[in-house]
Amino acid sequence: MNFASDNVVGASAPILEAIVRHNGGAMPAYGADPLTLGLTPRFRALFQHEDLAVFPVATGTAANALALAVMVPPFGLCLCHEEAHVMEDECGAPEFYTHGAKLHGLPGTGGKIAPDTLDGFLSGLTRHVKQMPPRALTLSQLTESGQVYTVEEIAALCRIAHGHGLTVHMDGARFANALSALGCSPAEMTWRAGIDILSFGASKNGALAAEAILVFRQDLADTLEYRRKRAGHILSKGRFLAAQLEAYLADDHWLANAAHANRMAARLAEGLGRIPGVRLAWPVQGNELFPILPDGLDEALRRGGALYYDWTSRSLPAGEAVRAGEGEEVLDLLRRGREGGDQADHRLARAHRL
Ligand SMILES: Cc1ncc(COP(=O)(O)O)c(C=O)c1O
Questions:
Q1: Which residues are CB-neighbours of 233 under 8 A, at least 6 positions away?
Q2: Which atom of ligand 1 is found nearest the CA of 140?
Q3: 67: closest CA among 224, 173, 174, 175?
Q4: Residue 270 · residue 278 · CB < 8 Å
Q5: By mean pLDDT, which of 75-79, 113-117, 124-128 is the weakest?
Q6: Residues near 305 by beta carbon (within 8 Å), at least 6 away in sequence
Q7: Any bridge partners for residue 215, and if so which?
Q8: Residue 118 has pLDDT above 80, yes or no
Q9: pLDDT for residue 341
Q10: pLDDT, tens digit, for every residue of 153-164?
Q11: Ranges of each domain in the chain
């Protein structure tokens, strides 16, 4: 039982089949193939946006770092949550791709930045050539704690950021899970609320290795193609990235996967909630779980073969009592929660925000 990350399972069948289906024959290279060209109208229709520009890449880190590179100059600040993936888990890729811009982490419960926190920070800044000017805000949807920003929260943050001259990026590594949780449209959760660039994740929800940078403002798209090439993220056989994204969107496969993953996470949370001594640090809103396990239970689970990450030592409870046999009971629930799980990968806990 491996609950470590939504990346520990393979790709879903329709996506693998699409790769094989599009393997035969010759096609133009470097994104000039019909599959890649077809992504633009496909995403434009999905996001109800006529000028949307699409840049497929193979990893979420590349999507985030390249997106931030067009938003923030080398001397600029990029605001994010203090636990954001861009801040803690991308080995400095945003700083590298922006040629030196600095990330500044803001606090907030559940991985969310509150509008007042953002406004307070921006309004309180001294404006002097000695200080790096803030140029962008990036929000993770789901957050690093598995929480969902509501459309109203996104809109409020974007209003404040735009009011201070910042552009706004969304790290949508778990975009589908968030969308499924909110039940709104892709447009409502992004550009209509003020998002300027989105890292549209697919790898965590069924793709083999595919994400797309979606740019809602034409001026921000201008240099991205060169930056993508320079970063080594224009695949010569681009058809395989496109085939994954096309199959991901076809027949709402992405939405079905995400809804299933969210349902399995809720089911697991419900089971865990019945066990005395186990509680969740945050409510389950998407496909991630952050249970607080008593030490003895944690050991029993690991001995029984369950794999998951410690998520933060700060939040570990002190002095939890463990009932006799509690470990076995949880293992059984976990087993049943995984039946038919496939892509329904949810994390029991996460460390290092993988
Ligand atoms: C919130 C978030 N953003 C981005 C990523 C980047 O993913 P990758 O490992 O594909 O670079 C991850 C991966 O765990 C993530 O959790």
A1: 57, 58, 62, 66
A2: 1
A3: 224
A4: no
A5: 124-128
A6: 1
A7: 53, 197
A8: yes
A9: 37
A10: 999 999 999 999
A11: 13-251, 253-338
Share of the chain above pLDDT 70, in %: 88
Q: How is residue 342 written in tokens?
A: 């496939």
CA atoms lying within 13 Å on the CB side of residue 262: 23
Helix, strand, or coil (residue 51): coil
Per-residue model confidence as pLDDT tens digits over 212-244: 999 999 999 999 999 999 999 999 999 999 999
The neighbouring-strand residues paired with 347 are: 288
Question: What is the 323 CA–ligand 1 centroid distance (Å)?
Answer: 36
pLDDT digits (tens, 9 = 90+) for 120-131: 999 999 888 999
pLDDT exceeds 60 at position 250 = yes
Nearest protein Cα to ligand 1, atom 7: 60
In the reported structure, the alpha carbon of residue 300 is separated from the centroid of ligand 1 by a whole-number distance in angstroms of 29
Class of residue 226 by CB neighbours under 10 A (exposed 0-12, middle 13-18, buried 19+): exposed
Which CATH number applies to 253-338? 3.90.1150.10
Cβ–Cβ under 8 Å, residues 157 and 166: no
How far CA 116 is from CA of 83, 107, 120, 157, 220, in Å, comes to 18, 11, 6, 9, 27
Give the residue, by CA position, lying nearest to ligand 1 atom 5.
60
User: Residue whose CA is closest, atom 9 of ligand 1?
Assistant: 60
Pocket-forming residues, ligand 1, beta carbon under 6 Å: 59-61, 64, 85, 140, 171, 173, 203, 353-354
Q: Per CATH, which fold does 13-251 belong to?
A: Aspartate Aminotransferase; domain 2 (3.40.640)
**Å from CA of 265 to ligand 1 middle:** 19
User: Best-predicted range by mean pLDDT among 213-227, 280-294, 331-345?
Assistant: 213-227
Q: Which amino acid is at 185?
A: S
